Amino acid sequence: MEANGYVAALDIGTSEIKLVVGELLGGTLNILAEGCAPSAGVKRGAVVDIDKTVQAIKQAVEHAEAALGDQVRSVYVAIEGEHIQIAPCHGIASVKREDQEITDADVIEVINSAQVMRLPDEMSVIDVIPSSFTVDQQTGVVDPRGMLGYRLEMHGKMVTGSKTILHSIRRSIERAGLKLDGFVLGNLALGMSAASVDEIDLGIGLIDIGHEKTTVSVFYRGDLVYSYILPVGGDHMTRDLVYKLNCKYQDAKVAKEEYGLALEEMADATEGFSFTNINGEVAYEPQAEISYVLEARIEEMFTLVLNRVQKVGVPALSGGYLLCGGAAALPGIQELATRVMGQKTRLYQPSSIGVRHPKYATAVGVLKYVLMSDHHVSKQNLEKPEEREVVSSTTKTDRQPDAGDEYDSTERESKNGFGRLMEKLFGV
């Protein structure tokens, strides 16, 4: 894809597989094509049936190629799920040039050096995310290139994931006839593309409501400081209606998507859903009753999210909350979130024509993250994780940041996340 001047991003979800192709023109993201297909081989971010996943990927690619008028050859893939772990990392390298001027090669070497850690056998390094650099005794450096020094250090985070899950995703992509350009942490890319620099600096929460899970991310002082997977999503809302209406799953899905509201008070007394229940009887359910069930589930979900975020230790989320994901398209959900969270909440959906739906947020976020940060250029010389010696174990993402890692004093001075950092380092 890179040879043609555009990049493709793939979001392998439990409900649907989304593919977005785009390019960067004059600093503006231009979406060229999108493809979407039902997903039957994925559960909570993990491929459980490679054959079905391959067919879904092929179908999404065919849709995108029809609009693009060209072949999609390679993709970046959004990666997330309960298997993902994030831990602080630290790299050290000596400056090689005789004149002691720091170059791109030195930056790449110090990022590579951070990967020399012993990991559990079942885990693999996905990415190293720099937060700041230290040149000799000068800390908090954002872009060390061009500076003079003898010792270069990098402070950041290492993202690791299950070898089994990563291998299944990689094999699915390869069998679909595509080349894997790399994995990108989905919630990081989404946050960096959906929120402003000021929001990420002051504090903002990202709530990505998927089919079977909800990913909760907290950004503060320009960095991703907390991530948690809540095992509740749009599927749970649908199943609540299955029991309430005593109907088939597909009928409950139609009731939710065509008549459902996140707030019962918004319901129209003249609206309702006619269906045949599980006993073969013709039934009718008012919109108010459908919305009552949905509101109860969503209110519970936001309450769980709020309880988690309050334990993170961030003083305040001045930027409020961002909602995205397929299930976030339910009318009234923004108002309910604001009511429960007690802070301003807005619904994020890509603005480009063809992908103006919250379900495309992650794929578009990865695309923008890659293009804006020039990630596909800046990371291409990094050593592959499997070439690295694989020593201390990583820390799961569902914990509160400690005083010595995410909030390290050197990281506090960094005002930019990885995307904007790498844009400054390697962007042209």
TrEMBL record:
**UniProt protein name:** Cell division protein FtsA
Q: Tell me any Pfam family this protein matches.
A: SHS2_FTSA
- Indicate whether Cell cycle appears among the record's keywords: yes
Do the record's keywords include Cell membrane? yes
Ordered alphabetically, the record's keywords are: Cell cycle, Cell division, Cell membrane, Membrane
* The encoding gene: ftsA
UniProt domain SHS2: residue ranges: 7-194
Subcellular location, in the record's words? Cell membrane
Stated role: Cell division protein that is involved in the assembly of the Z ring. May serve as a membrane anchor for the Z ring.
> Which family, according to UniProt?
Belongs to the FtsA/MreB family.
| Chain intervals with Basic and acidic residues compositional bias | 378-402
> What organism does the UniProt record list as the source?
Exiguobacterium alkaliphilum
Q: Where is this region: Disordered?
A: 378-420
What are the recorded Gene Ontology BP terms? Answer: cell division
Where does this chain mainly localize? Answer: membrane
Q: Which PANTHER family match?
A: CELL DIVISION PROTEIN FTSA, CELL DIVISION PROTEIN FTSA-RELATED
Q: Which domain of life is it from?
A: Bacteria
What subunit structure does UniProt give?
Answer: Self-interacts. Interacts with FtsZ.
Q: Which residues form a coiled coil?
A: none
Annotated membrane topology: Peripheral membrane protein
